[in-house]
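Margin note from the TA: students keep mixing up input and output lines. Inputs are the sequences; the output is the structure of the whole complex. Example:
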Amino acid sequence: MDSGTTYSALLTPAEVARLFRVDPKTVTRWAMSGKLSPLRTLGGHRRYRREEVERLLAESSEQH
Amino acid sequence: MDSGTTYSALLTPAEVARLFRVDPKTVTRWAMSGKLSPLRTLGGHRRYRREEVERLLAESSEQH
DNA sequence: TGATACTAGGGTAATTCGGGTA
DNA sequence: AGTGTCCGAATTACCCTAGTAT
């Protein structure tokens, strides 16, 4: 029942940027350097996996 | 729409949109530009082949 | 037959892309 | 080395009303 009308496993560049408090362009650079492995819309825009982003967030708070 | 429990070889615009984290209208644009080849219901609504959509999803996460 | 959710279509904002720069 | 910003072009998101799907 309603298996995800509001939830998505993918995040937009702006959403990732808000989580890290950086500019979306910086998120793009992380992707280009291989630190993130996003998929692409058919128009070429990046979509990031929530699971991957949250894992990196957790790791970054461990080592502080 | 019961998209979580019932399997179908055809996907609605909303289902495709959720997979790519885009607006359903964007999926329509992909169809109009030839990036997707949907069927049409007798009333004119588009239905997308799951096989085609999943193939494009897989390709989008490859590195190139 | 009615009720509700979704889609088509068109228009107009808002994001994102890529490159270059500070 | 890592970010933030400016730019133009391209892509995507949100607004509406009428018609379709279930």
